[in-house]
């Protein structure tokens, strides 16, 4: 197939060339400043571009994709979001209730989603996904939201709250709104912008996890935060890159360290736009899956694969029986080959 410089790059093209080839091509200049074959892309002939992509594809077929271990700022952000939970600024109200205050700022930000590839996102606090908001059932959540973006935005929290705090009204550029409500029910929830066109506001990156812990704490565990998402680089309504926590192959490059025999708890959500579902598959082991996680005593599903539509979420509890490298990825092969893949490094 000849490479047409005037035709948008589709995810089908990415798969045909091979994930490594296209990521290498992106890094070399198709979507960022740089070059292939030592020339800027604009200065290359169609034949030269096609030859370069063919060479990348050949290398991919022979050797597979090595994401490397360079600690780029995008990779660092993905690793950080895995274990960073924002509990807010804590105070006690006159009636004895705990109040947690958070600051959320919407902005137009270039976010690195793979080595050398930046995405023109709309973000909460400068990252995709946004910060993981965490509290306990019954706490008063107070979110001071400042819209520093060039577009109207909002924050819609999943859960139970007054309709005036539902986040469906736009907050204009350069203004502030305070969301305040009692956190309930306990469980694994999400938040996102709810201003039309919804597909654009969510796809551009305005979302994150919202964890409401039960009043009786869950069992002690190694806790991890994961948001499944995708990125449409050429704005054709199809994603070219898929990630967990916003960076392609992040946890293949840097496997997640855990211990054999310890309880590992993953707070997992899907905020992927343009695809009906996303999924999580674990190799060489099973896990307990609590849909939404609102009832800690609910009978979990025992499985190695779960699917989630957009906005769906749940809690995975895993115990690894012995040391080793346990792969995890989307069970849509296309998604896995385009960035949604990683390992647990069990010691």
The helix content, as a percent range, equals 10-25%
Task: Spell out the helices and strands N to C.
Answer: HHEEHHEEEEEEEEHEEEHEEEEEEEEHE
- The value of Rg in angstroms is 21 Å
Count of DSSP-assigned helices? 7
Number of strands: 22
Q: Which residue ranges are poorly predicted, with pLDDT under 50 across at least 5 consecutive positions?
A: 1-7, 14-46, 48-63
How would a crystallographer describe the biggest sheet?
Answer: 6 strands, mixed
Give the distance, in angstroms, between the N- and C-terminal Cα atoms: 46 Å
Characterization of this structure:
- The protein is an alpha+beta fold.
- Helix content is 18%, strand content 37%.
- The strands form 5 sheets. A 6-stranded mixed beta sheet has the order 13-12-15-20-17-18.
- The radius of gyration is 21 Å and the shape is globular.
- The termini are far apart.
- The N terminus is likely disordered.
């Amino acid at each position: 197939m000849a490479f047409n410089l005037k035709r948008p790059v589709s995810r089908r093209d990415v798969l045909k060339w091979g994930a490594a080839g296209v990521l290498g091509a992106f890094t070399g200049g198709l979507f960022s400043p740089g070059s292939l074959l030592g020339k800027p892309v604009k200065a290359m002939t169609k034949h030269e571009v096609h030859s370069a992509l063919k060479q990348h594809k050949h290398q991919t077929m022979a050797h597979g994709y090595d994401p490397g271990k360079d600690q780029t700022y995008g990779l660092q952000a993905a690793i950080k979001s895995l274990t960073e939970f924002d509990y807010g600024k804590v105070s006690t109200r006159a009636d004895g209730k705990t109040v947690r205050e958070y600051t959320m700022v919407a902005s137009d930000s270039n976010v690195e989603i793979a080595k050398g590839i930046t995405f023109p996102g709309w973000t909460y606090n400068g990252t995709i996904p946004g910060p993981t908001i965490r509290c306990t059932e019954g706490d008063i959540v107070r979110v001071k939201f400042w819209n520093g973006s060039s577009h109207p935005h909002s924050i819609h929290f999943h859960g139970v709250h007054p309709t005036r705090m539902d986040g469906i009204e736009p907050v204009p550029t350069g203004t502030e709104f305070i969301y305040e409500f009692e956190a309930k029910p306990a469980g694994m929830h999400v938040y996102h912008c709810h201003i039309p066109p919804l597909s654009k506001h969510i796809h551009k990156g305005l979302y994150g996890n919202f964890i409401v812990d039960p009043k009786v704490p869950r069992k002690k565990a190694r806790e991890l935060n994961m948001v499944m998402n995708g990125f449409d680089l050429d704005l054709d309504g199809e994603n070219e890159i898929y990630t967990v926590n916003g960076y392609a192959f992040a946890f293949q490059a840097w496997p997640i360290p855990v211990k054999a025999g310890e309880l590992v708890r993953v707070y997992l959500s899907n905020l992927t736009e343009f695809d009906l579902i996303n999924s999580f598959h674990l190799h060489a082991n099973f896990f307990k899956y609590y849909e939404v996680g609102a009832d800690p005593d609910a009978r979990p599903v025992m499985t190695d694969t779960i699917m989630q539509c957009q906005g769906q979420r749940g809690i995975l509890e895993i115990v690894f029986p012995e040391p080793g490298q346990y792969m995890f990825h989307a069970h849509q092969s296309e998604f896995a080959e385009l960035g949604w893949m990683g390992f647990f490094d069990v010691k």
